[in-house]
């Protein structure tokens, strides 16, 4: 695997630059699997299909100087700062489950070499004991897959909780205690500082390094422009007259807004922390347009294999959610 890096003289970059860098590597560098690490000033990054108003405490973020950005991968809300290391992995593998398994397996094995009893958990987490130290998300482009995620070396716990919870000090305080029961900090399990740990990761996972040139960096800046538009960050949230909410185990939380006219479906908006692996617009939303919101019409309209669109989603579970039964 090849380590990708920026010139040492490069000025500090915001989170969106590194997301664009992933895309650049995936689209323009294809001789091997690639990996790089990055750190950012305090930032909340939320999933491709999430409603920012529902997931992020925007007032807390504004007050505390925390940036907010959207990524193109699915999954939930993440807080990052300089004490937390972000990992990016780009591969030719296109199967979601195999890609997650391969990447998480590599990271788990690397941590075990340091004496850390790390294990894989669920679809995208790495645990030490019963506490999470890393969460990861997946993004697919034709011919390549990107996995990116956190490595929780250390963090500002107050910001982590405050940025993604309601603006109530008691809730924030309670949230910190709850979060501390479910996550762990890597610094408490290894005797090396963050820079020494990063050096170990690089040497263990990668066999050589490539430094991006100015032309590559300029193209990354061009790709980054999309991530910075208000339309991409905040999205368009039109009003709908039916809303379904629920959690489907092993898939994620859903908020489905349905616009109805004359008893037929005219538009559908599907938000949540699920992982998208297909074209939700063409494969799920388009078939529902102009159909009645009945079990018969919905089942007939939707494809049998919804897990080709949303990771691990069963048709029966989604139909049940839409009908709110």
UniProtKB/TrEMBL annotation:
EC number(s): the record gives 6.3.1.20
Q: Name the Gene3D superfamilies on file.
A: Bira Bifunctional Protein, Domain 2, CO dehydrogenase flavoprotein, C-terminal domain
Q: Which GO terms describe its molecular function?
A: ATP binding; lipoate-protein ligase activity; lipoyltransferase activity
**Pathway annotation from the record:** Protein modification; protein lipoylation via exogenous pathway; protein N(6)-(lipoyl)lysine from lipoate: step 2/2; Protein modification; protein lipoylation via exogenous pathway; protein N(6)-(lipoyl)lysine from lipoate: step 1/2
- Single biological process term from Gene Ontology: protein lipoylation
Record flagged with keyword Transferase: yes
Q: Under which main EC class is this enzyme filed?
A: ligase
What taxonomic classification does the UniProt entry list for its organism? Bacteria, Pseudomonadati, Bacteroidota, Bacteroidia, Bacteroidales
- Keyword terms, alphabetized: ATP-binding, Ligase, Nucleotide-binding, Transferase
- Keyword Glycoprotein carried by entry: no
| Name this polypeptide is given | lipoate--protein ligase
Q: Name one GO cellular component term.
A: cytoplasm
The record's catalysed reaction(s) read: L-lysyl-[lipoyl-carrier protein] + (R)-lipoate + ATP = N(6)-[(R)-lipoyl]-L-lysyl-[lipoyl-carrier protein] + AMP + diphosphate + H(+)
Q: Which InterPro entries match?
A: aa-tRNA-synth_II/BPL/LPL, BPL_LPL_catalytic, Lipoate_protein_ligase_C, LipoylTrfase_LipoateP_Ligase
Query: Which stretches make up the BPL/LPL catalytic domain?
Result: 29-213
